[in-house]
Amino acid sequence: MMKKMTFILATALLAQPVFAKGVEAHNAYARAVVSGVQQSGAFVTLKNTDAKDNVLVGASVSKRFAERTELHTHINENGVMRMREVKDGIPLPAGEVVELKPGSYHIMFFGLKQEMKAGKKIPITLKFKNGKAKKITATVKEIQKTAAPHQHDHQHGEHHNHDHHDHAHGEHH
Ligand SMILES: [Cu+2]
Q: In the record, which residues are listed under signal peptide (predicted)?
């Protein structure tokens, strides 16, 4: 009995450095857009479980989905939200959670080849500064029903819609 417990403990301790390291990805989703719209965005919550800072330096999808994938952020420029490519990547400080979300950091698709319908699964490869890569699957969902993504003048409205959606969802319960 003692021996067995010691063995389990030792295994757990040995296993820890292997499984606790790296960047975890949770809740990956992409914005549904109507047919003909060429751009969309994807979002994911990343947790850097390493003791070292890391950076999300790139993201890619199969050419079957989109021509090009970039990492973007939104900045407030004199009260107007504008989108910018983040050339230096998205910082992932050690031990911290970074949420890619509408109005903030996001993965951006250009030249969509397929309609981004709700429920569709998009495999995305994330690349990190430490040379590691991670495959995630984003589920397409409706984030905003009307305007095309990244009409940045409407960013404020997007937030309202999003909040409203969450609220409405809560009321169902
Ligand atoms: Cu963008």
A: 1-20
